[in-house]
Amino acid sequence: MGQLEFDLDDPRRTTDPGDLPSEITEWDQQAFARITSTRITPEQERWLVSPACSFPEQQSVLGIHWHPEFLPLDLIKERIRKVFPGSRLDLIIPTQHNAFLCMDGMAGVEVDCFSSEFNRKVQLLLHLREERLDRADRLISMVSHTFTYRSSQLQEYLATLVEPAWEGRLAEAAMQTGARGELVAFVRQQARKLRELIELNGSTTPPFMLRNKLVESYFNQLRAFCDDRFIDRAQIFLKAVKKAVKANFSNRYFYQTREMIEEARSQGAGIVIPHPEQFWPVLLADYDVDGFEVWNPQSREYTEFLIDFVKRRNLDRRLSRPLLVFMGDDTHMSEKVVDPRFRDPEKAEREVGLQPAWEDQAVRRVLQAAGFTRDGIIEEYRSRLS
């Protein structure tokens, strides 16, 4: 995702979206190349390795739910060292969406599955030693299939924006967001161009860049010509459409959760269920997992309840391998190299290993009662992965 290359104060900018051509231009091709590039500029590298905050007093770092995306791991590690210069104990494993990634001898992935027993998509964090991937062909194939299928959601998203068959979704999104006819027409026209750009360039585009966020990035590029407030309204409308697409996306082609767990276990993987409150029945499913994520920046309302749930489950079952509690920062590193004017403030403040709930007094009391500490979780989970 290259840096935006235009001047927001350029007098050539127009507030009339109808002035934009309906056919693909050289500018469109260049814009598509920018937003699908995995190269970063020197300025973006500086942003990446220059965190705005530092926590020298934090001596242990747990990072088992975060997404490097297309950014170099060596630069990410430099950033983490700067955020936590006093760390003496850590467990940091990247978890790319539906694609294994390795760092410092460990491999991780966040994979989508389907739990037919309660009819919900479920996500799993899988972690294992890198050398185990050498004999994990079926697990790798399952994850690869999931990546390919999950990536097809972008095509459904664009089809919803472009094709008449999905006008009902657009009408509902327009009603929810107050989008007027001219805005909807503009979005549909530009989405049609984006779909054509993907057809023209998809074979040479890194597969990872063909995801839902591409739509947001393309419309941000259109700020070169359109008033910011108009594009802001378009983004609100697009977000509502995307939400509808995700809610209706078929789960039938995901692997069953139990099947994914069984294959991962056969390769010695550790398994954590992230943000379980997004699919509550998973707490009753009795899956063979190492633990549950009880906090992350978008799932923090039920932290104390989830810790207590894990405590009670361990007391009831007397498991030989007790369930553990984890916290995940859910950092998406590409947000660090977005032009500061267009960053999502909530996502931009996330850092790998930054989980304030460990220090929250109320949460600490519940953790202490359950016998959990961050150091203890790091040491126990690392031992299991060995």
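Second entry:
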Amino acid sequence: MSGPPQLQTIFQELDYLDDGYNDGLVSHVGLRRIILETPELEAEVGPTFTRALLTRAESNLYGRMTFDEFILLAREVQSYSTAGRRGGHVASSNQNGNQVHPEYSGTVQYPKSAPKHTLHNAAVKLAIPVNERDDRLNYLDKYSCKPPPMFILLLSLLQISVFVWHVILLNNTGKTVGPNGPPYTKGWLIFNPCRKWQVWRFLSYIFVHSGYFHITFNLLIQLLLGIPLEMVHRWWRILLIYLTGAIAGSLVTSISDPEAYLAGASGGVYAIIAAHLANVIFNWSEMEFPALRLLAFLLLAGIDTGIAVYYRYIEVDTKVGYGAHVAGAAVGLLLGIVVLRNLRVKTWERVMWWFSLLLFLGLFLAAIVWNAVLIGHKVSKNESSCAETTSS
């Protein structure tokens, strides 16, 4: 190895902490873990270089870094730092008393990838506790529109398109779609209790909605909450929570109401709601207006679920269930704790993380096995015996 002696020592420490060996390579997954769990590293190389390392790690979690790449990154940081520094290079000491070259001391900010616009600031305020906001924004503008939050937007546009298409098909058959239905039950997207062996229906039903109120509520919630969460936590985390919540909703409904059709994105929507509420509850004292947030979302969820219960047990023509609501909320609560970002990990939060992960995996696998058994029995029966009720 060649380079500043302190950087050689630091890289060797990272190499060993990564996998317990000094093989000249540091995995990006290990690098990210070390940075987030070892605050002493920032004291050694400064916040600027630390942010640059974290950004490199999160840009490709499957990659690895060599010592030469480590040095090149340090030189890039030096070029930015030198440009913003007045006067000559003067060696400084970190909090441990070790002398650190000024080019790695992090006295100036690494350039941001995007300016903080009003929409960006609103997303940060909605999704991040006050006590973590400055720290998180310091990690190279993670919560920006690069890449833009396209998952929720594209999903919403596709759901609107399918709904309009279904309205046209129903109108052509003489049926008028109102606030609460009817849904289009003859397509390949809706969850059909007589076609459970067509496994894509356990997810594709999110594109079928039962009336104008149904699709309006789902779109309103997933846009208001989903976009800020996607800007903060990246699209793939929200995709994982949303789609897993939707699948859990169909799995639970298939067990609790086995003869019901299933339409709507309530499983995914309630997963997003629960993920956000879990963040509010765990950071109650740091969140802005936590009681108002909790009350507003509980009120919306209560109205939607109440209507679902009414149509499931009282309305004769259109029976609307609520199993997907409960299942999606459970997934959002558990999986949100596991996959949403948390740069300040406390001991009890680590315990909660493992508990949530194991409980989620246990319940999800149990629901899959249970449905597999039910499908095995169902295919041997007469499919015409299925009752055409609708759940959402």
